[in-house]
Amino acid sequence: MPRHAQLELDLQLCFPLYAASRALTRAYAPLLEPHGLTYPQYLTMLALWSGPPGGQSVGDLGARLRLDSGTLTPLLKRLEQAGLIRRQRDTTDERRVMITLTPEGDRLQDDLAHVPGALVERLGLPAEDLFSLRVILDRMLTALDTSLDTSLATRLDTSLDTSLDTSLDTSLDTSLDTSLDTSLDT
What we know:
By secondary structure, this protein is mostly helical. It is built from seven helices and three strands. It has helices spanning 14-32, 39-49, 58-65, 69-81, 103-111, 115-123, 127-185, and strands spanning 56-57, 85-89, 97-101. Strands 1-3-2 form a three-stranded antiparallel sheet. Helix 1 crosses helix 6. The radius of gyration is 26 Å and the shape is flat.
């Protein structure tokens, strides 16, 4: 028993979310494996299938999937090697890489159309519960994003203020030292 009741594992919100996420990923594996996909690759394909027809930039795709480029880039390379997507520089902005589906990647959508229903069946929960859970999780993500954005903005403001104060102090110190040295020399 922990010294602090609030540190009891069974009372934590994060633990069942973490465990459920891992279990859900394992539940998808037998549904995706015959198609050569991992769960993160499946999510990427879902985002591409439901995205704009002309493709998406790596940055937009990463934001939609909540993945950083260090995680997303190798995943996209594997999907490209499998012939499911194409990566190419944006013709209007060379800094952006655009992701588009290949015909094979688009056809895969038909092969995987059964996956959401099969997973819901495996869960054995009423559709209303699953919908409610989805709504609550979306609200939680929005609240966390807002909280993290506010926290980051505060840290950036503090960092900027500290940086400006340090620069100003250094600049004033240097100016005073130079003025003092010049006065003493004359």
